[in-house]
Amino acid sequence: MSVPEAMVFAEGVTKSFGSIEVLKGVNMEVAKGQVVCLIGPSGSGKSTFLRCINNLETINSGWLSVDGELVGFRQEGNNLIELREKEVAARRAQIGMVFQHFNLFANKTAIKNVMEGPVAVRRMNKVDAKRLAETLLDKVGLKHKGDAYPSELSGGQQQRVAIARAMAMEPKLLLFDEPTSALDPELVGEVLEVMRELARGGMTMVVVTHEMAFARDVADIIFFMDGGVVVEAGPPSQILNAPQSPRLREFLSNVS
Amino acid sequence: MSVSDQITTPLPARATADRRDTNWKIVRRPSYGRWAVDALLAFVVVGLCWLSFTNPNFQWDVVGKYLFHPAVLNGLWTTVSLTTITMVLGVGIGILFAMMMLSHDRFLKSFAAAYIWLFRGTPLLVQLIFWFNISALYPQINIGIPGGPYLFSFSGNSITPFMAAVLGLALHEGAYMAEIVRGGVQAVGRGQSQAAIALGMTRLQAFGRITLPQALRIIVPATGNQVILMLKTTSLVSVIALPELLYSVQNIYARTFEIIPLLIVASVWYLFMCSLLSLVQYFLEKKLGKGH
Ligand SMILES: Nc1ncnc2c1ncn2[C@@H]1O[C@H](COP(=O)(O)OP(=O)(O)O)[C@@H](O)[C@H]1O
Ligand SMILES: [Mg+2]
Predict the structure, then answer these.
(1) Which residue out of A55, A100, A107, A152 would a mutagenesis test of the B interface target, given it has the greatest number of B Cβ atoms within 10 Å?
(2) Mean pLDDT of all residues in chain B?
(3) A256 in contact with B, Cβ within 8 Å
(4) Which domain holds residue B253?
(5) Which pLDDT score is estimated for B142?
(6) β-strand pairing of A221-226 with A229-234
(7) pLDDT tens digits, residue range B261-270?
(8) Are A72 and A150 in contact (CB under 8 A)?
(9) pLDDT at B16
(10) Residue spans per domain, chain A
């Protein structure tokens, strides 16, 4: 059913919270090495869909696979069998996630934040983990901030540490949920620059964002979501310059 | 020096002259009001000390005589062990019930809520007397498969004051600790465990490695207060004739009628133990403060 090249493949994905249906049949395909941006008005289900991809939420119906593997289930004949928590966790370990509010571990220094995944999940020894963390902090331009606690870092620095923390798991897919929305305007650029660098390096990324300039520059495909479905999808030139649906046109005129 | 002189921004001539040439001295305003309050307080303190040390009815020599009396030291030991045992049990019960409160299972949640409601909502003194008299309710307690052989059998009549005290204090403490642990865990933002889970940790791992260490920052100081409170609360079990510190001195003054000096003896020991515990608490809190 899923396309072999696809890193993320979604067809008719629905998700409800209680009686409220938040995702009403999302279709999406992200090829390996692609960068896609998810745009759309607040409450349209972007975060929820992102969280479904790494099984922080479980979908109610439809088909959702990552790298050819069904998310949260195992297929046996006609049955979809729910995975055990350990299996779910093992798959999540291969998907990095960066949050709007960074969510750095408040009681750990920057370098310990980056080491945590490798040590706790990949069972790497501390010496190797430390070396890996140093390399990654260097990559995001924070080599000298390893011993700082999150409370001692600016928002932009915290988010860059969070990206390094996600990268330490050597993920095959990175999810970003509005990574710059909580930042002061002058700090947005440094985070986007790190993300650009990752995109250039061939990382597969799904980015929920309101930064249209970033989407235009970096995205291979932009998905416009509204009311729990993908309304329109295409390359940035098409989505941003020649929007087809009235809803997208209205959305773009509001964010510009 | 000369360089910095040259680049100072030009100021109006008079202001510049004033700043450069004067050796400023700050003159503080005298605070007569505060001195008056201090003096009054000092007078009260000295007066109270004078009154207590010169009043022969305090019988300080009797205090000295009984401070290290074997019966008193035995009572102190009982108080300390009772505090230790009930706090260990109370913390254990508290963690268990906090986890039930935090679980997604409605039944577990309600069960824990009912426990906390019951044991926080009735006076400890009532609970202690209740456990001491449990045999009136259950002369014989058997645990096993209904209809099958008993795994454990226990006569309600053989409940000792010590067992009643441990039961009463620990169950009561457990209810308070459950709320402390729950509050501490909930004070750690959901984003913390979420990030840990997104890294690929199991929920248990995320709790143990990320949430709990941060929750301890709140739980430990509060638990410290509970220990200090418990040390003194154990004196309640004197009503079921368990010879802890208070009951031991009561035993003595029932014979000698030296009530005040013996109450001072007990108080000295309570104060001493509390001071020790406060010290431990201080260092623990300092150690846990990292990153905040
Ligand atoms: N855990 C949840 N429980 C109940 N409702 C939720 C939950 N998460 C999201 N929602 C609801 O789902 C809708 C979509 O939310 P979200 O996916 O965060 O939208 P977006 O990220 O596009 O702004 C919102 O109306 C939100 O209130
Ligand atoms: Mg969102």
Answers:
(1) A107
(2) 88
(3) no
(4) 61-288
(5) 72
(6) antiparallel
(7) 999 999 999 9
(8) no
(9) 53
(10) 104-169
Identify which of A97, A107, A117 has the shortest CB distance to residue B213: A107
Is 50 exceeded by the pLDDT of residue A198?
yes
CB-nearest to A97 from B189, B198, B291 is B198
Using alpha carbons, list the distances in angstroms from residue B202 to A117, A118, A203, B198. Answer: 12, 14, 25, 9
How much is the pLDDT for B3? 45
> Are B291 and A151 within 8 A, CB to CB?
yes
Kindly report the pTM of this predicted structure. 0.81
Tokens linked to B206: 């995320």
> A interface mutation test: which of B188, B190, B193, B199 has the most A CBs within 10 A?
B199
Distance CA B6, CA B3 (A): 5
Q: To which H or E segment does residue B274 belong?
A: helix B259-288
Residues B34-92: pLDDT tens digits? 999 999 999 999 999 998 888 888 888 889 999 999 999 999 999 999 999 999 999 99
Nearest CA to ligand 1 atom 16: A45
- Lowest-pLDDT range of A165-174, B80-89, B117-126, B155-164: B155-164
The C-alpha atoms of residue B246 and residue B108 are separated, in whole angstroms, by 39
Determine the distance separating the centroid of ligand 2 and the alpha carbon of A43, expressed in angstroms. 7
Note the ligand closest to the C-alpha atom of A22: 1
Q: Which pLDDT score is estimated for B9? A: 54
Residue A2, pLDDT > 50, answer no
Q: What is the CATH number for B281?
A: 1.10.3720.10
Cβ neighbours of residue A54 closer than 8 Å, sequence gap 6 or more: A66, A71, A91, A92, A95, A97, A175, B198
Atom 9, ligand 1: which residue's CA is nearest?
A: A48
Chain A residues closer than 8 Å to B196 by CB: 105, 116
How many separate domains does chain B show? 1
Of A120, A150, A162, the CB nearest to B205: A120
Place of tokens 């039944």: B107
For the Cβ of A209 lying below 6 angstroms from any atom of ligand 1, the answer is: no
B174 within some domain: yes
The model's confidence at residue B155, banded by pLDDT at 50, 70 and 90, is confident
pLDDT score at B1: 42
Among A146, A182, A149, CA closest to A164: A146
pLDDT higher than 80, residue B122: yes
Amino acid at the residue B127: Q
